[in-house]
Amino acid sequence: GxxxxxxxxxxxxxxxxxxxxxxxxxxxxxxxxxxxQGRAEYDLSEKGRAxxxxxxxxxxxxxxxxTKIISSPQARAAQTAEIISEILSLPVNFDPQWQEIDxxxxxGIPLEEAAKKHPFPEFMTPFDPIGESGESxxxxxxxxxxxxxxxxxxxxxxxxxxSHGGFLNRVLYVILGIVPQVNFSGARFRFGNTAYAVLQYNxxxxxWSFENFNSAPVIP
Length: 220
Prior knowledge:
This protein is α/β, with parallel strands linked by helices. Helices cover about 30% and strands about 15% of the residues. The protein has a six-stranded mixed β-sheet, with helices on both faces. The chain is globular, with a radius of gyration of 18 Å. The two termini are about 15 Å apart. Mean pLDDT is about 90; it is low at about 1-10.
């Protein structure tokens, strides 16, 4: 299982006090339609609802527990969190800091159409807005930094965070100490629908330990 790690450490300075599971929402109707979602609202598809139920049942079977769930308030993430919350009998806190990228005029547009009507500039610095009026890559990084800071400032515990693929990438940039690059180049971290990464954090030494990444249970 992947329950909270209660291993005995040699001293208080060696303790991982926070266990954080970063989860991408289940498949949305926007995912199924192949659109840029961003801040556009889409419900979970039937497949997405099944993914959330299957994951929650898997965690229930594995006796995986969380102190609480923190979720983006956007429909696709909120619905994922609520399904898991009901099955695991856990409270959910909605935090707008965990919303997806504000991608401006690209929100809700099919990928192929966007490539024709609103192509990305040939050169984008980390300070240029996405989709003409959205957040810049640096805006995202700053928002991710604040979200991570508030997360590790919570009481010691095991936290499930339900968010979005684009934003979770910037969260991992913050954790790994990677700065935003020009043209969105550099490392990219894959999160499938209802796939998750599990990390532990030691605040006394500012050490992150990755247990797994892009994990999802194999449901028979």
